[in-house]
Amino acid sequence: MIGLPRVHHRLTDSTNERAKELALADAPHGTLVTADEQSAGRGRQGRAWSAEPGEALLLSLVLRSLDELLPLRAAVAVAQSLPVPAQIKWPNDVWIGGKKVSGILVEGRPQEGWAVLGIGLNVATRSFPDELSEIATSLALEGLSTSREEVLRSLLGSLDRLLVADAADVLAAWQERDALLGAQVSWSGGRGKAAGITNAGALRVETDAGIVELDAGEVHLGR
Ligand code: BTN
Question: Is the dihedral of CA 155, 88, 75, 57 positive or negative?
């Protein structure tokens, strides 16, 4: 069972940073770090992740058993743990109704056999800053009144299953929730129509020049 031992911080810079320290100090697989508030929460692509104190589930797990599908496993686990239909925007943003409810940041040293899986999930947020209000949501805004601890319990159960699930099952579950399938997308190198993922989790895009496979980076919908 992942989630033990657990360290909880009222305030820390980043739970991913704390979990990295624990990983380097030989913390076991499944060690959990949570926080009420982060002063320097990190997102993908060098972005910041911010949330008001107590409003989001902020967690990082030390994992010592991993494969290349970890970011996708985590996204499926988050989506399946929610009591409402949720989609996944490649590679691992979780959306409800086209708005992001959860973000995932995997860091660490896979070549040394460990990674830190960081998950931020908006639980009780009732209003977002102007620049986020059109693109972000929370469980509270979706009409779900639940505590961060309840969400955590459900998520850990879901992660327990997904982290060891067969790759084919993970890919199938991910594809059932693919928010981009068939949509026009753009990225720094081009544009085209999203056409699912490869067995390694890369995004397939049909472009005028043929199929392109993106294995990292950011894609934008409809531009
Ligand atoms: C993203 O959407 O870009 C990923 C966001 C990941 C945020 C979580 S919050 C808990 C953990 N600690 C961090 O500093 N980042 C992750």
Answer: negative
What's the start-to-end Cα distance of the chain, in Å? 42
Looking at residue 7, its amino acid is V
Question: To 10 degrees, the CA torsion angle through 68, 73, 75, 80?
Answer: 170
For residue range 103-143, list pLDDT tens digits in order.
Answer: 999 999 888 899 999 999 999 999 999 999 999 999 999 99
CA of 14 to the centre of ligand 1 (A): 8
Question: Do the Cβ atoms of 142 and 44 come closer than 8 Å?
Answer: no
Distance CA 132, CA 208 (A): 33
Closest CA to 89 of 210, 101, 47: 101
Q: Which long-range contacts (CB under 8 A, 24 or more apart) does 140-144 make?
A: 142/84, 142/96, 142/97, 142/101, 144/83, 144/84
Nearest residue by C-alpha to atom 7 in ligand 1: 120
Helices (H) and strands (E) in the chain, counts: 5, 12
